[in-house]
Amino acid sequence: MGAEAAAAGVDETPAVELRGICKSFGPVQANREVDLAVAAGTIHGIVGENGAGKSTLMNILYGFYQPDAGRILVDGRPRRIRSPLDAIRAGIGMVHQHFMLVEPFTVLENLLLGAEGGFTLEAGIARARREIEAIERDYGLEVDLDAVVRDLPVGVQQRVEILKALFRGAHILVLDEPTGVLTPQEADHLFRILENLREQGRTVVLITHKLREIMAVTDHVSVMRGGRMVAHRRTSETSTEELAELMVGRKVLLRVEKGPARPGEPVLEVAGLEVRDDFDVPRVRDVSFTVRAGEILGIAGVAGNGQSELLEALAGIRRPSRGRILLRGRPVEDAARARARRLGHVPEDRLRMGLVRSFTAWENAILGYQRLAGYLRGGFLRRRRMIAGCVDWMERYDVRPRDPFLHAADFSGGNQQKLVLARELEHDPDLLLVGQPTRGVDIGAIEFIHRRLVAMRDAGKAILLVSVELEEVMSLADRILVMFDGRIMGEMAAEEAEERRLGLLMAGVTAEAG
Amino acid sequence: MNDLFLQVLLLADSTLRLATPLVLAALAGLFSERSGVVNIALEGKMLGGAFAAAAAAQLTGSAFAGLFAAIGFAVFLALVHGFASITNRGDQVVSGMALNIMVAGLGPTLADAWFGQAGRIPVTAEGARFRPLTLPFAEEIREVPVIGPIYAELLSGHNILVYLALLAVPLVAWVLYRSRFGLRLRAVGESPEAVDTAGISVAWMRYRALIVAGVLTGIAGAYLSVAQNASFLRDMTAGKGYLALAALIFGKWRPLPALLACLLFAFADAVQARLQGVEVPLVGTIPTEAIQAIPYLLTILLLAGFVGRAVAPKAIGQPYVKER
Ligand SMILES: Nc1ncnc2c1ncn2[C@@H]1O[C@H](COP(=O)(O)OP(=O)(O)OP(=O)(O)O)[C@@H](O)[C@H]1O
Ligand SMILES: [Mg+2]
Asked: What's the pTM value of the predicted model, to 2 decimals?
């Protein structure tokens, strides 16, 4: 095990060392004999496929799960970490893949929770305000302490999570897929914060699926596959191609191959659409476009510029305040009826809108489609057929573990996403609305999903793709619309799209002005 | 002295008496439900408290012994509830209902065995009951217009548990919103994972909430059998536990609104008691059963129509499971 550390090029006492960690959940072996050494004062990346066991490993370090076997050393000394409290005392902080915030609480209350400093809150509040302001200043983490967490955008919620860890004195900070929900700008901001932390001598462990990010900010990187740690590298001595191959165990095509589109009849026509959010603020303003059969229309834009509301309106979940949405020439009334008219919808926030966490995989795999003729016999669900279908999709979308009876909550983040994608893509819609198709999924799965979307297009389906990943939009879409502040800033064919021009439009700078 | 004014005062006075067990039980429910444990068992815990209070008070001749026995027994029931629903992650409602049924049967059976009075425990021993307290100067200022009667008739002359229940409301509000325990309590019912990852034991928080709830339901039970009445009777809670739960929901899990809801229900009950046997023009005497149904009808109407959207603590009803 010491040799393992040496192989990773770690020369001084590691800030954290995990030795021989094993963990299983029932029949699922999430971690097998995992070793990991993280050098003090570095940013250490961990990559691996969905379900490889990354979150599990970090939750063991944080005391959230108990390992079946293995030891944890912090600053060279063995530590018993039996609860998050032990981990916090050992100076470990963690930002979870799914945030651990109390939504109706204010930021301050969330920060205080567990660190109140006395029976009454009074004294703690005063102290917290002072200390947190200092931390905010040192690391550029601005947050309004009195805002209610529920009302904050995810990027800010994440800052609250980081603040929480720092407020409790973490010098080792674990971040589990922090950029999955961030816009590129927010991600850049986050990386500046992480670099700041490193400069101050703190240690960061970063889990991400984006190899670009690994190359950009980490010093070392470890690769997991199937519950094992399969490789350690110095970031300067590896490449995205090598990492991709190590993760998946085969060569991965990082580019999408597709021929020219052959657009046919208009399937979706949108005219003069205005959509307001829950606070009655217009978020989509006067938007018009058409999606034809056999093409992929991409909508690019920085998150929060109305794309979510647009998707919800098109799917029939949110009523537009003005304008028209025609699906095959007839208006969309509500989500259930739209679905019956062969509209598929992969919501952006799949965990909240796409799944019932306490349902099993197979139940989730038919959710919303349970009335289809093929699933019913005399008003009863044809369970056996549904389960068989679910197993087949799990196979093709590589959902792990392939257990249709597992509850959705027990799948890893990326595998939950794959389940929703399988359901919406495989029910063969005429119009597919898809938001952030590859958020949180590993590169092997990205390759598969991209190929699947292109195949659907070639089979004559209409696809509306919303993504904040500029690269994804540029490589998949046939035409690209850019949204800014609820309006369409411009349209271009994919061939003539260039990153610089799109970037300007996304920032709200039009051609005339530029 | 205006006769109508006195009538109103008397009505308010009995409202207060009837509200006391509801308030205590609703606050008990507030602790447990804010922590994420549905407390359908308020009824059984209160009944258990009433039983233990009557038995202990009668045997020792001390009302306070009765009170402590009630608290002890209700806390024991709360721990059983916790063991089933927190430690063993059983269904909170099912285990709560089981407690209700068990206590409903156990109380009269034991009472029968010990006191041989057909499931009753009469509380007749000297000093075994909480007596009304006369507040200072009540008699002296009785004759002062308006304030005098209000003080002497309405505020004075209750037993100590009534005052305790009223004082408990601001105290609970303070604990809930201003103390460390309250912060953690509110958090654990909303997002147990957040509490867990903040280094706080979810199970221990929920146990503590249930214990506090046990104490409060015990007091409520003691009030029924050794303060308001002078005996333990079969099913003497008569749905007050469920009514308290309804008041809690009506008050959206907040102390002050829950108090107001309890007062409203108690008021309906007081009116109901007054209306019995009263001749109504044209209709004649309304059947007792119809009149007795008033508080329950009111509950249904309020919960169905007027509460608006009651937003329960998000994690309520779900045992906390992080790995299967
Ligand atoms: N609470 C749980 N109960 C049961 N099984 C679980 C639980 N948490 C994780 N698993 C299983 O353990 C395996 C590893 O999951 P983990 O969340 O560690 O993966 P991951 O590497 O973080 O993947 P992703 O990139 O998708 O987040 C998966 O097969 C998952 O289904
Ligand atoms: Mg994960």
From this structure: 0.84
